[in-house]
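wait is this the right file?? whatever heres the structure
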């Protein structure tokens, strides 16, 4: 039997495919960026066909690079940007509207109405989530109400809804498989994380027809096999998880109390809480970490909407840098006490503030402020927001992490990692394989394929590449963080 695994990592700004060996090492990878569309203030969309075509392209490229044929691949795992919402024709697979991305805030007013009507506590008790435009249900409702005839078609069973994993699976299997996993389902606002079922009362609240919904499986399960014409052989899809949950697995955070933080477009910190769902008093989310053999491991999560996207904005939006790698040298020259704070609330603030109407700002500008200071402030904003999440976890009584395991594109920046350790006061560990999202879903597929016996055998593959120890004085740490809290208060719509 072949021991190679193909991971599809469909993210917010790019689609990736990575071929992994059974040892969890990348053999070949391919990546393609695609366009984000911003039709109105606070709206973010993707073209569903672009998501599909870019995914197919990178799978073919990664296989070609690896020198393997499709028949050499034991299984495929799919991980994805999570709450992004697609609705497509059940016959043709054609989306009826552009994908509404997790960052999109168009349903903020409807969410406010639901809260005012007193629904939030009941929704949170069932889903572990807050009523916020971030999650899929209100996006799905918007599509059904705004696309002519969609509501009626949904009632007649002619449409399908899914997060990106379900959409790709549908396409990969030629419409034979409409499934998702428990981690993605737990991000929709429609799934009861205690019963592990789509919830009738929630479906009624949002006006969603059950015929739209995918079947929910474990994260390691038989999701169907891909059409042989696409890659040259039929390969089973045996693993699926939302990107942050996949990273939790890729970082081998299998013990309660272990924490990982992923720095992609946004930043997501997840702490494993074991078999018990922990309810946050600080507006963090209770979610499914992973579900294996019908057993749920829960997690608590803080979500920051803008991390790498701040660097992208510095590069593409205001053109202060030509490449993300330029930022490290600039920050080294500037130092940590530049006095400038950039609050990247471009699409509102995520945890623990959950303020969809907040907007970004830069504070502390003087005549001496130049490009270097603004770029450094952009990098620091990611670390300050991580501290916000860690503080919320601390206040919820979470176990103090012995270290923070990090991954994602930004963690290659040594300056950012050192500043992160400094501002948190916690060691930061960077693994040898930083593509942990893709790796996590490859592990899940390998678990189902029998390549790995259990989670322990997966954990043995995790290796640390570098550890960053905090070295900042407590007084300096407090002063910098207080400046950040002041800046955040100034942009909040509710403060």
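ok assuming it is, sequence goes like this
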């Amino acid at each position: 039997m072949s021991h190679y695994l193909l991971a599809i990592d469909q993210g917010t700004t790019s689609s990736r495919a990575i071929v992994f060996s059974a040892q969890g090492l990348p053999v070949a990878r391919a990546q393609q960026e695609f366009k984000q569309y911003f039709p109105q203030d606070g709206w973010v969309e993707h073209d569903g066909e672009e998501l599909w075509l870019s995914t197919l392209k990178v799978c073919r490229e990664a296989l070609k690079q690896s020198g393997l044929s499709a028949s050499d691949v034991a299984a495929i795992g799919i991980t994805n940007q999570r709450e992004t919402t697609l609705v497509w024709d059940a016959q043709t697979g054609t989306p009826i509207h552009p994908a509404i991305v997790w960052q999109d805030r168009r349903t903020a007013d409807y969410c406010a109405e639901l809260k005012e009507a007193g629904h939030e506590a009941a929704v949170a008790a069932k889903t572990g989530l807050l009523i916020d435009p971030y999650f899929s249900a209100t996006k799905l409702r918007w599509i059904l109400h705004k696309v002519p005839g969609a509501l009626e078609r949904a009632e007649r069973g002619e449409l399908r809804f899914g997060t990106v994993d379900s959409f790709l699976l549908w396409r990969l299997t030629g419409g034979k498989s409409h499934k998702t996993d428990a981690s993605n389902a737990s991000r929709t606002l429609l799934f009861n994380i205690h019963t592990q079922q789509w919830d009738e009362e929630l479906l009624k609240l949002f006006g969603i027809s059950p015929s739209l919904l995918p079947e929910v499986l474990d994260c390691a399960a038989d999701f169907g096999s891909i059409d042989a014409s696409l890659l040259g052989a039929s390969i089973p899809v045996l693993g699926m998880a939302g990107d942050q949950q996949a990273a939790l697995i890729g970082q081998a955070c299998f013990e309660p109390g272990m924490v990982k933080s992923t720095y992609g477009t946004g930043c997501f910190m997840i702490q494993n809480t074991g078999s018990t769902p922990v309810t946050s008093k600080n507006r963090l989310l209770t979610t499914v970490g992973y579900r294996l053999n019908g057993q749920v491991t829960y997690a608590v999560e803080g979500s920051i909407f803008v991390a790498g996207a701040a660097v992208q904005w510095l590069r593409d939006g205001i053109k202060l840098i030509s490449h993300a790698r330029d930022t490290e040298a600039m920050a080294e020259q500037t130092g940590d006490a530049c006095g400038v704070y950039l609050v990247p609330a471009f699409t509102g603030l995520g945890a623990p503030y959950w303020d969809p109407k907040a907007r970004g700002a830069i504070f502390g500008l003087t005549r001496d402020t130049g490009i270097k200071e603004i770029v450094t402030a952009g990098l620091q904003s990611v670390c300050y927001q991580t501290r916000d999440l860690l503080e919320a976890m601390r206040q919820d009584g979470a176990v103090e992490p012995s270290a923070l395991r990090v991954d994602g594109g930004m963690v290659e920046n040594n300056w950012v990692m050192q500043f992160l350790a400094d501002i948190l006061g916690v060691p930061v560990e960077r693994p040898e394989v930083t593509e942990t999202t893709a790796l996590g879903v490859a592990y899940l597929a390998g678990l189902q394929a029998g390549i790995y016996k259990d989670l322990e055998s997966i954990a043995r593959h995790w290796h640390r590449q570098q550890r960053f120890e905090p070295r900042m004085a407590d007084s300096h740490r407090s002063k910098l963080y207080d400046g950040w809290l002041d800046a955040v208060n100034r942009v909040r719509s509710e403060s």
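The chain has 17 helices and 22 strands. so i think its the right one actually
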